[in-house]
Amino acid sequence: MLQRVLICTALLLISADAPAQVDPSGYYGQHQLTTGSFYSFFNADYASNHMTGVGTYVDWTPPMFMHIGVEGEARWLMFNGANQFKEYNYLAGPRYAIQVGRRLRPYAKVLAGAGEIDFPYDLAHGGYLAIAPGGGADYMLSDRWRVRADYEYQIWPRAVGIPNIPGSVLKPNGVSVGISFAVFRGRTY
Question: H or E segment at 52?
């Protein structure tokens, strides 16, 4: 009797760990969270400053939409600025991407948020609205690793009255190259 109880218990424990289905026949969608970092080369559009800096970004694609997602990025242009000039961006917004082949994923985006400037000689610090349309492409190295090339054209409409540029609107633009990792790559079915 004890032997039968032990065998039944062992079979129950073994079968509890076994999955009922190996892989579903179809998927409803895919949700993904990707985070990465990049290096930027920008024309700051203030006193002809060509600057470089580092940044980070997060992309999220919800399961309901295969092509539409959300991107957030932060960029710190701190190198090559004349006389301690620095520019910072904190932006977020929608991103539309399509799959071309197995590895290439071009995208377009429109981000908005804060653009900040540390003016030369520590004269002042200004914060402005920044609108940033752009686009680029992610190239998949593996299921989780990607490299990115990105172009962004920013418009700072309220940056009026900045010293040396009276009555103008700033339009910084530039390219970034980076690498990312898919933190979460789940499937919903």
Answer: strand 50-61
The answer to the question of residue 74 being in a domain is yes
User: Is 11 domain-assigned?
Assistant: no
**153-176 pLDDT per residue, tens:** 999 887 655 555 555 678 889 999
DSSP-assigned letters across all residues of 111-169: EEEEEEEE-GGG--EEEEEEEEEEEEEEEESSSSEEEEEEEEE-BBTT-TTBTTBTT--
Count of domains for the chain: 1
Task: Express each pLDDT in 60-115 by its tens digit.
Answer: 988 777 789 999 999 999 888 778 888 899 999 999 999 899 899 999 999 999 98
CATH number, position 155: 2.40.160.20
With respect to residue 148, please indicate whether it lies within any of the assigned structural domains: yes
Q: Measured between alpha carbons, how far is 138 from 133 in angstroms, rounded to an integer?
A: 17
Domain of 100, in residue numbers: 29-188
Residue 18 sits at φ, ψ, to 5 deg, of -80, 135
pTM of the full structure: 0.75
User: CA 23 to CA 19: how far, in whole Å?
Assistant: 10
